[in-house]
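Summary for the steering committee. One of the milestones for this cycle was to obtain a three-dimensional model of the protein with IPE bound, which we needed before selecting residues for the alanine scan. The sequence and ligand used are listed below.
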Amino acid sequence: MSYKEQIDKQNMPNHIAIIMDGNGRWAKEHNKPRVYGHKKGVLSVRDVVEGAGEIGLKHLTLYAFSTENWKRPKLEVTALMQLLVNTISKEADTLNKNNVKLTTIGDINSLPSNCRNELIKAISKTEKNTGLNLILALSYSSKWEIIEAVKNISKDVLEDKMNIEDIDENIIDDYLNTKGIPDPEFLIRTSGEHRISNFLLWQIAYAELLFSSKLWPDYRKEDLFEAIVNYQKRERRFGLTSEQINK
Ligand code: IPE
Ligand code: IPE
Ligand code: MG
């Protein structure tokens, strides 16, 4: 039986987040410049998004560019931004046809204007779609997001729009970029690195983690299906005992 057939549709995670890592090392292994790895990585994005749609996943967040990634060599940053513009403009119609709704998290204002404009167009084109919610994390870092949330909460308290006593988990959820999106139950990172790299720190408080040794350009929808089958074998206890869960 294929991994896809093994997926239990009754026990699907609502939201999967992926740290797409390893493009540079993939390029190095193939004696190519790093940018070539990023280009190949786009094919993995396309395949994985298609796979997510096939199994009826509701939310998929892809970590595409971190706040820290701005510190990479200028040539690589420029090439990544150009790749983003080209990919969004090329894929927007296909996403729309497949009922995918595109959104972003991160500091979108820090992106070059052509990039931001292309994104805004694709977001508004797909905003009424009811299938997969594809969330691109761009110029995103969790600490940045939390700082923004703290600033905005403080502002609302100072302006008497909120009392300090009202601040709870739900309020914090509402001040994050991911407002309205359920927390990911499952986080995947490729390339064999075992770290979170400033991604969704608040939101993954209870996520199941899976680290794949595959480099991102080698990752395909079958790998996603296999990961989901793995996820479905786990017991999520949320602090309870196994006996409590299974009674
Ligand atoms: C992930 O691949 C893509 C981005 C961070 C933009 P990397 O570029 O980090 O690839 P490695 O980790 O150097 O192999
Ligand atoms: C994390 O990958 C960010 C993205 C995948 C966009 P990095 O390659 O930037 O992470 P570190 O620096 O190795 O932790
Ligand atoms: Mg990396």
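Key point for the committee: The chain has nine helices and six strands.
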